[in-house]
Amino acid sequence: MKLKCLVVIALLGISFFVSAKKKVDNVFYVQNTIDGFKNIPRQKLEKVRLLKNIGFDGLEGAGLSDFYELKSDLQQVGLNMPTNYVSLSFGSKISKGSALIAEIKEMIKGAEKGSLVYFNVQSEDYKNNKDAGDKLLSVILQDLSDYASDYRVKLCVYPHFSLYCETLEHSLKLAKLVSRNNFGCVINLCHLLKVEGSEGIEQKIKSLMPYLIAVNICGADGGNTQQLGWDRLIQPLGEGSFDTYNFVRILWDAKYKGPVGLQCYNLKGEALEVLTRSFQTFQEYKKRYVNQK
To answer: Cβ neighbours of residue 44 under 8 Å, at least 6 residues apart?
Structure first.
């Protein structure tokens, strides 16, 4: 009798371990590049209602210009603003008290708890002198991170083709220089493929995991991705020859729990159809992962 009980307990333990390992419930939102669709609703409230009806969890913000209006519309339909995509241009004369830093702090103060602000960073002064630029930038980011900590908001630099920070390695260096618990890294798949190619992705994800707080995905073509145009690197989810499911699987295997954004830059077609198909593809990814042996 005791042996049977032990066997049952052991099986329950294994079952719990497997189900816990396979559980995936990342927030799935749409990036603000959704506006590229010609037939997307132009009224923000109608736009977020469309996303709500499809099943998305939220919509990315796009800086301060429409921050409060978008936040209000999202709350009205029961969606969130998981991320806010903000431009941060810095040079030798930028200071903690500058108008730009004050504007960013205003957005941080109004952001939802647990959300994050990621910066596309630009610098004419330091683009060719990143050792000096990183030292100055890290001080600015430390100040912003300390401020954001009181509002439970996370921050990171967004690796972006042709901007100050282009690579995952550089973003990780900045995260280590800033050295704050609420400052991390983000992976945007299309920019990763464009700048660094598709080799070694699994190892890069593993190296980022202690800092990784946001991921953006899309369909894409594989091969020599650094030579491909954006029309091939940004496709509806589920399209293209690059194995986006495997990319997401690696993230889930590494216990990534943060938000996942859908990149929509310059996608063609009917907005409802493309967004619905991409949403359904992500649900299929989750089901496939949970059910894999």
So the answer is: 66, 69, 70, 73
